[in-house]
Design brief:
Layout: H1 17-25, H2 28-37, H3 43-49, H4 59-74, H5 78-92, H6 96-110, H7 115-120
Length: about 130
């Protein structure tokens, strides 16, 4: 379990939690409760409200899942992975249209690289 804890030191949480959590949870009342009480948020609740994507049974399962996810991501175009990550972060704080415009610009620039051709010919990105 974890909590949003600024009670030690008497300052407001300043690592972006209070700015990001309302967008993740989508329930301002619940975010207010978490932030104002600093109560512990247990794994089942964190999964239910969308703070985490899944809860695993133990550390071994966590490591297996992490390695499998890393392998799946590593098999993709590094340019596409970085572009997707960058555009996900951008889109979090911008309108849908702004996000679409940025992706169009990003993709037009990436067409000059080797990854699109590598993807169409079987996905060998090491030589791309």
């Amino acid at each position: 379990s974890s909590g949003i804890n600024a009670e030690y030191g008497g300052i407001v949480a300043d690592v972006g939690t209070i700015q990001r959590l309302p967008k993740i949870v989508g329930n301002q009342s619940l975010v207010n409760e978490y932030c104002l009480t600093a109560r512990k948020i247990h794994s089942d609740e964190a999964a239910r409200v969308g703070i985490v994507s899944r809860v695993l049974v133990d550390q071994a399962a966590l490591m297996d899942e992490a390695v499998a996810m890393a392998a799946a991501i590593a098999a993709k175009s590094p340019v596409a992975v970085q572009g997707t990550k960058s555009n996900l972060v951008f889109s979090r704080d911008h309108s849908v249209q702004q996000g679409l415009d940025r992706v169009a610009l990003w993709n037009s620039a990436m067409l000059l690289g080797n990854d699109p051709m590598a993807a169409m010919s079987g996905g060998d990105f090491e030589d791309a």
